[in-house]
Amino acid sequence: TYVGDILIAVNPFRNIDIYSSQHSKLYIGAKRTANPPHIFAVADIGYQSMVTYNSDQCIVISGESGAGKTQSAHLLVQQLTVLGKANNRTLQEKILQVNNLVEAFGNAGTIINDNSSRFGKYLEMKFTCGGTVVGAQISEYLLEKSRVVHQA
């Protein structure tokens, strides 16, 4: 559900069909009220604002451990690469797969979550003035080294 400009989502802890590529198409260029609240709508609103107003946009994902932040971020980036019409599949795959590499060095198992991120991520996507995605840069911060190196 939305609370103002904020999307509140709950991790279902299972795969559901509202994250398919077919479902993502429902949100491309649609009014916010045309479909139920969704992470794809957040991506579209941010993208459309960036293109329309030629202004940088920021989307913050926060929540408790196990809330689904990593998965939400992946879906958001996936939708932004679709909206940004990544000219080749390789660029889209690179942007989406870089997260797996970062997770390999910064995730650990916890009681709540088998693949818990032990750091924050800042992903900056690069777009042309026309809205075509041309790259991305990821930075990590607040790495909890003791939780990654030693088993809890």
UniProtKB/TrEMBL annotation:
Myosin motor domain sequence ranges: 1-152
InterPro entries, per database record: Kinesin_motor_dom_sf (IPR036961), Myosin-III_kinase_activity (IPR052409), Myosin_head_motor_dom-like (IPR001609), P-loop_NTPase (IPR027417)
UniProt GO cellular component terms: filopodium tip; myosin complex; photoreceptor inner segment; stereocilium tip
Gene Ontology annotations of biological process type: positive regulation of filopodium assembly; regulation of actin filament length; sensory perception of sound
Principal localisation: other
SUPFAM superfamilies associated with the record: P-loop containing nucleoside triphosphate hydrolases
PROSITE patterns per record: MYOSIN_MOTOR
Pfam family, one: Myosin_head
Cellular location(s): Cell projection; Cytoplasm, Cytoskeleton
Annotated ATP binding sites: G63, E64, S65, G66, A67, G68, K69, T70
Single GO MF annotation: protein serine/threonine kinase activity
Lineage top rank: taxon: Eukaryota
UniProt entry keywords in alphabetical sequence: Actin-binding, ATP-binding, Cell projection, Cytoplasm, Cytoskeleton, Motor protein, Myosin, Nucleotide-binding, Repeat
PANTHER family membership: AGAP011099-PA, MYOSIN-IIIA
Record-stated family: Belongs to the TRAFAC class myosin-kinesin ATPase superfamily. Myosin family.
UniProt-recorded name of the protein: MYO3A protein
Taxonomic lineage of the native organism: Eukaryota, Metazoa, Chordata, Craniata, Vertebrata
Encoding gene, per UniProt annotation: Myo3a_0
